[in-house]
Amino acid sequence: MKPSQSVKIDKRDLEVAASAVIGTAAYVHYLQLFILKVTLPTLIAGVVFGTIYLVISIGLFKSVKIFYLLGIILPFLGASLAVVRLHIYGFEVFSIINIGLDVFVVPACAYLFAVERRGRRNDS
Question: Lowest CB count within 10 Å: 23, 35, 51, 74, which one?
């Protein structure tokens, strides 16, 4: 690709990819309940964030615009809490996996949000 060329990201493809990745994060949150010793932080992360991520996954798949913003805020919060959890409890593979998944979802949703805002501004 030449330096002057730009990459065009299809909005629908990015919605589906973000939906799949955060859906995987929801699954991983539920999975940790069956593998790790169940403590209050594990239970909260597994049930609360697993359910929130599942809802966000469905919303992104259905192209519901509010989930672009929720897909920025809540996974960023989840990743931040996972970093705190790593600091307090030490290495834990599920936290690392979830941070990695959130690192994809947050910028993807930020891009979708920005494109949506730009489109609304141009329509006015």
Answer: 35
Instruction: Check if the beta carbon of residue 26 is closer than 8 Å to that of residue 57.
Output: yes
Distance between CA atoms of 108 and 95, rounded to whole angstroms?
Answer: 20
Picking from 124, 14, 8, 120, the residue whose alpha carbon sits closest to that of residue 67 is: 14
What lies within 8 Å, CB to CB, of 26 at 6+ separation is 49, 50, 51, 53, 54, 57
Task: Walk along the chain (124 residues) and give the pLDDT tens digit of each residue.
Answer: 576 777 788 899 999 999 999 999 999 999 999 998 888 878 888 999 999 999 999 999 999 999 999 999 999 999 999 899 889 888 889 889 999 999 999 999 999 999 998 877 776 5
Q: Supply 20's token pair.
A: 């799949």
Q: What residues contact 32, with CB distance under 8 A and at least 6 apart? A: 42, 45, 46, 94
Select from 51, 69, 85 the least CA-distant residue to 117.
69
pTM of the model: 0.87
